[in-house]
TrEMBL record, chain A:
InterPro entries: ACP, ACP-like_sf, PP-bd_ACP
Family to which this protein belongs: Belongs to the acyl carrier protein (ACP) family.
UniProt protein name: Acyl carrier protein
Lineage: Bacteria, Bacillati, Actinomycetota, Actinomycetes, Propionibacteriales
Superkingdom of this protein's organism: Bacteria
Automatic annotation (TrEMBL), chain B:
Designated name of the protein: Beta-ketoacyl-[acyl-carrier-protein] synthase III
Protein family (similarity comment): Belongs to the thiolase-like superfamily. FabH family.
CDD domains reported in the protein's UniProt record: KAS_III (cd00830)
Entry function: Catalyzes the condensation reaction of fatty acid synthesis by the addition to an acyl acceptor of two carbons from malonyl-ACP. Catalyzes the first condensation reaction which initiates fatty acid synthesis and may therefore play a role in governing the total rate of fatty acid production. Possesses both acetoacetyl-ACP synthase and acetyl transacylase activities. Its substrate specificity determines the biosynthesis of branched-chain and/or straight-chain of fatty acids.
Coiled-coil annotated spans: none
Keyword tRNA-binding: no
Enzyme Commission code: 2.3.1.180
NCBIfam families (alphabetical): fabH, PRK09352.1
Residue ranges annotated for the Beta-ketoacyl-[acyl-carrier-protein] synthase III C-terminal domain, each copy included: 242-331
Lineage: Bacteria, Bacillati, Actinomycetota, Actinomycetes, Propionibacteriales
Enzyme class at the top of the EC tree: transferase
Region (ACP-binding): 259-263
Amino acid sequence: MATTEEIRADLAEIVNEVAGIPADDVQLDKSFTDDLDVDSLSMVEVVVAAEEKFDVKIPDDEVKNLKTVGDAVAFIERAQNG
Amino acid sequence: MTDLIDRGGSAHAAILGIGTYRPHRVIPNADIIEAIDSSDEWIQQRSGIKQRRWAAPEETVQMMSVAASRTALERAGVEAAQIDCVVVATVSHLLQTPAVATAIAHELGTNKAAAFDISAACAGFCHGVAMASDMVRGGSAKHVLVIGVERLSDLTDVGDRGTAFIFADGAGAVVVGPSDEPGIGPVVWGSDGEQFDLIRQKEDWRDVLASDHPSMPHLVMQGNPVFRWASFEMAKIAQQTLDRSGITVDDLDVFVPHQANMRIIDAMARSMKLPAHVKIARDIAEQGNTSAASIPLALDRMIEDGDAKSGDTALLIAFGAGLAYAAQVVKVP
């Protein structure tokens, strides 16, 4: 099972690919919109890439609850364990 | 038992000529932003659109179609009288019947060609090309004129933050006819009516008329789910289309997706892993999203700019309200 840090690092790579944000900036306490400047369309791309990478489903309704990188990592951890 | 004769058609079909019409009014973002409390920067960041073309009153659906068609006929070296069928893809000819295609066929001087409109929204042009190719190969027609035309400015709510900056006007036409080599590959098309409400006319005419204050039923759209579907599901359809034509992305010269939004175009290209040599249509920056007209407008611009040459292999993929989609590989005329 992937550790929290492994998931964060993989997600950071995705955010870097989609939005060009340095992967090191993508830390658990960072807000996607306020801190990382990931807009709603980029967020859709991040979500789709994350679904593929982590083999989970992230429903549209859930996306708005993923405000921080930590929220997204926690959701992915729960989805993988569930 | 009486046998019927099957006349058959040409072994292959191709696009023989292309023509377009761009309305004269250029509308920069600066003219849009006040009504939606937005900025030039936000619109460009969100859509890649810098300006769009909106038709003047005299630039009607019919007028723009005829102008684009005359250029297409001339470039194809085909007389109007040789056209057997006129197919018009549009959702913004506001006279519901008869089909505008009949008036266009008449004004062009066809010999009373078959003429009808199809309603497949932004996917309409590629539906028309697929049908025309089948008509030519099936023997129903020798030359078919396919027109994609819109005046979406008539259907745009200028106060809607989600759509006011996107939609635009214009026309594109191609002549499809017989060919010695395959010039139009097999279509991959389909629909997903479960997502009927994602892009639609806000309400039907009966509801409009029942209202105390009847007003134009504008186009409405749910941006994020449309973005997701278009960027990722359509990238899969693009790959299927290449597979069906027996080619890979490496064989492509030109990629002409429906000009819906620059962000969708970029996401599709990334998702498809297009090699760097493939030229990508980006007409939307200066033309806006012209629905059924966007693919011929974008392809014609690439030809003008030297980004697409005669004989190049181009992937066309159109998608939109329905949700409906159609795609095919063609040879650039």
